Predict the 3D structure of the following.
Amino acid sequence: MTRAQQVGVMLGLAIVAALTLLRSDDPLFFRFAREAVFDEYQRLAPRPFEQMPVRIVDIDEASLRVLGQWPWPRDRLALLVDRLSDMGVAAIAFDILFSEPDRLSPRSVVEAVEGMPADVLGRLPDNDQIFANSIVSRPVVLGFGISNDGSFLPQVKAGFAFTGEPPFGAPPIIKAATPLLPALEAEAAGLGHISLDPGNPSPVLRTIPLLLSDGTQLYPNLTLEALRVAQGASTYVLADAPDKPDTITKIKVGDFVVPVTARGEIWLYFSPDRAERYVSAARILSDTQPPEALREALQGAIVFVGASAAGLQDIRTTALGQHVPGVSIHAQAVEQILSGRFLSRPDWADGLEIVSIALAGLLIVALTTFLSPAIALVFGLTVTVAALAASWFAFRYAGLLFDPLAPIVCATITHFSATAFRILVIDRERREVRRAFGKYLSPELLYRIEHTHDALRLGGDERELTLMFVDVRDFTGISEKRAPKEVVAFLNILLDALSRDVIAHEGMLDKFIGDSIMAFWNAPVDVPDHARKAVRAALAMRRTLASLNADDAFGFGPGQSVAIGIGIHTGLACVGNMGAEAHFNYSAVGDTVNVAARIEAACKEVGFDILVSESTAAYLGEMALLEAGTLPLKGRQSRTRIFAVGGDEPVAATGAFADLRFVHDQLLEALRACAADAAELAHAAGEQSSAINEALPAFYRRILRRSEHFPRCEGQRAEERVE
């Protein structure tokens, strides 16, 4: 293991450990993100609505218009109980607080009159007593709320049985409750709290506590009590987790078993809010006989009485993003229990997610450090897809809630960090390779230094040069997939082979710039016919690279070929010793150098490996050249006409090239005239060109997308302006 790999592994392990500890602490943003994912699952696959014996008697806007504003006198609620009981409902649960006497009761109204005789008061009806009398021996459940003041705690109408130690420390704590009128408390068949989300900071309702605790006694909520009273059950049975004190796993209510969280909460699996759940209170209290269909719908049903009227401000947000009255939450919870469609997050889910973060992180660090970031990326994408798929299928088919987001986010952070470190190491090693190749001097320069007494002086002279730039295509991708030593070995093989072609054709190797070569002809000594020799060197490089790829000289494996781009330009440049007195090198500078470099860069856009400028093409005689357009090169105001080099003189003399040249010239005219047959000509040229050079078909496939490189002549533009 190299020093860089050791540092990379240590850094990766530190990041994985930090992310694992962060997830173990489970900060608020992790919880919010996890719950948002679970909400999205419910929106994608909500609990289907089923006709259940559960209904809501709704104090809606229509009821308020018909029967007056809320609160209603309690003799009207007594009438509601009477009529529902006559319809044969299984239970009536009020999601309403009865903590104060009815101010609309006749007795309460007259009591405020001074001097009213006591015997008169005694003969006046009391609405609270009327309501209390109506619920006697009927399956009525009243609600109470959590209070921060006082010490009142309601009666518990049911017993509790435990499979282990009583889990009094598991549910949310209740210190006091809103008081109930004694007569109502005594006559109710059940009492349940109506608090849906005590202490929950999220506006979205996802769980509700089925139990509260004062430390010595458990208090059921309205949902449980309605279900118990409807079945005529008298006891709740609570199961705890073995070896885990103060935890609850299941609550048995009559014939139904409800899986809960350790705190005794039920995960709500919402069904879209439907009008079929609701019955307007005005219909029940109407003077007319209720229709038979309404009687059938309510017979044997668990009925919750609550309000949806906007002014009563009992609206909650569900995981489906709907705003519903709070009473419907109780109704949906009972529906969920009756249907047996539960959601649960196992106690071991947190541990599984933490372990998955650690294992995935360790594998990503190992793959990035010892293999390649690309393999690590594939692994990370696989982990992402697997986590999402496993989480979704667990929810969809087993009702289990597993968080895919935390492992994915942590794996992404780990991969990014490890890859960034790897790239930094590769970049450093690439700089070392450049420094090593920068020491390479051509034999011609050594000869000049040895035989010229003033060669080691700063300065230069202006002369005509032919400049060549060679660059490896997708060198970054090659570097990322291989260890630094492999990258250096690859560059040594390639640059050495290409450099031999430059030297063999009397060229001067100026410098190696990472994966690039800069060379020039006609300095430091005169080179006759230097432009032609530079192009012959480029053609030799093409053959050399083809041979290296065919022999798999780089060890990349079958099909993994290397490509280069070559740009050549002829013009005046300043050439000589440049730098400082302590350290300098023999090089060329000037606009000619810049143009050659830009032409090489244009190889990517043109889609061909060897491009020369018009000034170089003028020296090439009968070589196989094809005009590639007039390109705007970076940093230059005027366009530069360039040519693609298809081959040398023997290639140009073939009949195949003559035919191609004829079609090519027609294509150029069509492109400049924006003719409709340009595409057909490009296709024909591409088919003919494959016999000349295997890279030419790609050149013709791209040429139609470069129409701006073939501007119309001034005559055509003038004609268009006249028209």
Notes: Residues 493 and 554 are 7 Å apart (CA to CA). The first strand starts at residue 54 and ends at 59. The two ends are 74 Å apart (CA to CA). The mean pLDDT is 86.
